[in-house]
Amino acid sequence: xxxxxxxxxxxxxxxxxxxxxxxxxxxxxxxxxxxxxxxxxxxxxxxxxxxxxxxxxxxxxxxxxxxxxxxxxxxxxxxxxxxxxxxxxxxxxxxxxxxxxxxxxxxxxxxxxxxxxxxxxxxxxxxxxxxxxxxxxxxxxxxxxxxxxxxxxxxxxxxxxxxxxxxxxxxxxxxxxxxxxxxxxxxxxxxxxxxxxxxxxxxxxxxxx
Length: 209
Description:
This protein has helices at 7-17, 21-43, 46-63, 73-92, 137-140, 143-154, 158-169, 174-181, 185-207.
């Protein structure tokens, strides 16, 4: 990953600030697709996602002179996208279901990530994680399964959803996600663990009814 002090990073940043069209096109080719996929997972609508990405690129152009190079261009750019997507998601969800006013975001609580009923009195598994070895590969990798994964992610509390999207959809490293969201590494690990546990449980229910 290119970062400050790397000659290729410095030269690319200098070219971008100088208005080099080829340098900007190269940046778009590298990141436009991943940015759009991440935006889609935030807002769930293709048209809105396209607006989010376009606004992010415009913000990037306007802010290049203020970019100090303390992070990689990728981290900085996706940080802009996350902020824009968060704003649009809030705007698109202004009319909330009545019950959601009492929905608690417990991503950092101490509730167990696995139902206690799946353990015996000795603390050992009584109903362990189910194997998917007997599930046909075509079903595991099929479009319907991927839709169940997306639906499971959509039901997560916002803080958990954000971390799993950045780690498992956008492919960021743990340290990058901590920096992007302004949270501690320990907090990032807890949110990701809880998010993955919930998604896996929902997949268990679908693949092994």
